[in-house]
Write a structure and sequence with these properties.
The chain is built from 8 helices and 15 strands. The chain is globular, with a radius of gyration of 22 Å. The protein is of the alpha+beta class and about 350 residues long. InterPro entries: HotDog_dom_sf (IPR029069).
Length: about 350
């Protein structure tokens, strides 16, 4: 029996599964985020949202001891005999309510819906809902690719499966993550940041202080608000990590959720100490991940990161295998503004 099935069986107590339609399932959980999902600011760490989404996949796709008579979502268990599912890309949106400590984080509801079917891929949309307040705390799209177990190559969906579920595809729901190349050294426009009370930021040869992020336009007498800057330059920074045994999934590879963790760890640990202090305060608003190859336990990886020139508080990440020098994952993260963070944490 695969570990995935065994895990679902152990999680099933206190779970009610309802099939709303052939392509949609609702999981009502008597539990929510565990204690270890919360960080020093008493807010949920973003990769634990991905862990919860993964739990929902296990509970949807497999037989549950307390509900053995039910059919299985999307007949995925029938596919498992010949195929595996490899995560191709992920899009995560975290709403402010998830970081609001006045809002409980249990019990929760997960609603999963098949929204796209490609030649060998499927896109599942998940909403993480707090039913007591009718709030959506986060949403996540996971586009998986069907893999032939023998060739380890993408395989088309079987005809019977496509006939049954192909009708639920929406071409606009195909999840594509555009992988950004690492910027060339001669095209980088550097910035400066020193995190002190009277912080001086330099941007496009201009200077302003962090205490006063307003400038007066002498021509119009109006106030111009400068963007909320991350303490990063466009220059590429790198930080090395090792895939630990505790990061592995039921197949012995790095779990797909840990790559976001690696990026956020590298961002804080690989930045100068004063910048690191501010980066710890930041809250993830959204993340896009492209999975290119699998990481193995014990493998050393290099996380490279640089900020986006256009998207406010956006950061690009490349996760590269130190042995192969090949790109394993691309991640793009956008953070909430400091104003939003201070508002969300003001109830501490």
């Amino acid at each position: 029996m695969p570990a995935f099935v065994k895990i679902a069986g152990q999680l099933s107590a206190g779970v009610r599964r309802e099939f709303l339609s052939p392509n949609k399932v609702r999981l009502t959980l008597s539990w929510g985020f565990p204690y270890e999902a919360f960080g020093p600011s008493a807010t949920v760490k973003p990769w634990h949202v991905l862990n919860l989404v993964e739990s929902g996949r296990a509970l949807s796709f497999n037989s549950l001891p307390n509900q053995p008579e039910q059919s299985l979502f999307l007949c995925v268990q029938d596919l498992y005999s010949h195929y595996g599912l490899f995560q191709g890309s992920v899009k995560l949106n975290i709403f402010k309510e998830l970081y609001d400590i006045s809002i409980p984080k249990t019990p929760l509801v997960l609603e999963k819906e098949l929204v796209y079917v490609g030649k060998s891929s499927m896109n599942l949309h998940t909403d993480v809902i707090l039913p007591s307040k009718s709030l959506t705390l986060a949403s996540c799209e996971v586009q998986s690719v069907l893999i032939d177990r023998e060739t380890r190559r993408p395989a088309p969906h079987p005809d019977w499966w496509r006939e049954k579920f192909g009708q639920y595809t929406d071409a606009t729901k195909q999840l594509k993550v555009n992988v950004r190349k690492e910027p060339e050294e001669d095209t980088i426009r550097g910035g400066e940041f020193e995190s002190k009370d009277n912080t001086s930021h330099k941007l496009n040869n201009g200077e302003f202080t962090a205490k006063d992020q307003k400038l007066t336009d002498q021509n119009s007498n109006s106030s111009l608000h400068l963007p909320d800057l991350l303490p990063l330059s466009e220059r590429v920074t790198s930080y090395n990590l090792t895939v630990c045994e505790s990061d592995s999934d039921s197949y012995g590879h790095a779990n797909w959720s840990v790559y976001l963790k690696y990026c956020l760890d590298a961002l804080v640990m690989g930045s100068p100490s004063e910048a690191s202090k501010e980066l710890k305060r930041r809250a993830v608003k959204s993340a896009e991940i492209s999975y290119i190859s699998e990481g193995s336990v014990g493998q050393e990886v290099c996380v490279k990161f640089w900020k986006d020139e256009v998207v406010p508080r956006g950061v690009h990440f490349h996760i590269i295998g130190c042995d192969s020098k090949q790109l394993m994952n691309y991640v793009f993260v956008q953070f909430y503004s400091l104003e939003d963070v201070e508002l969300m944490l003001s109830k501490l």
